[in-house]
Amino acid sequence: MIRNSREDFLPDDVSIIIARNKKTKERIRVVDLLRYTNVNVLPLSEDIPAEVITFLDPAVEHLCFDEEDQKVLIYLKFKGKEEIVLNNPVMLNNYLSSGTIKGMITFTLAQEVLQNGGYLVVDEIENHFNKEIVITLMRFFMDSKLNKNGGTLIFLTHYPELLDEYDRNDSIFITRNRNGITVENLSNILKRNDLKKSDAYQSDFLEGTTPMYEAYIRLKKSVAEALK
User: In terms of pTM, does the model score above 0.85?
Assistant: First the structure.
């Protein structure tokens, strides 16, 4: 957004989104899922779209929520099995994988961001996901027909293969530990277009993106000595 004459009086550190929200009578919704990074608990109290469930786990027929006496009941049914009724979201971990639970959270929020605009920030996006699930999520945001309102996916990853999904380098930032953690735009450090981004990362062509060879040799010798 660009400030207009009516908003020029605001200090630079005050967001003009406040004025925008007053005009449109909207509010910023922030969902913090940090506490679910290592413990996957479904924090939602509304039904998960069937298409999301089928994509993540085809064996699940339905998963829905109902509130009775101020308590949320969870109804889970697998195809060909009797319905399971739970009263605690933590118990879903006994029936669904961590990837399925994380996927339900992530794809449901992604749909909201694609519909309304905004930002979806995911730390270690590959955690509990295989590469194809991550790529599917990325491509949803890259698809102009789906992402009509400028929704933005910001994620950190240890999967260099995901870099090859991008045609451009200026939306990728590389973190390196060189006398302290540094962050640099890939377009500033990778000038050659004939190199695959993942190969450049894994081969240490970018410098500082892979363990030092000397450290690897010392570790290997240490393991070999311990096994004698």
Answer: no
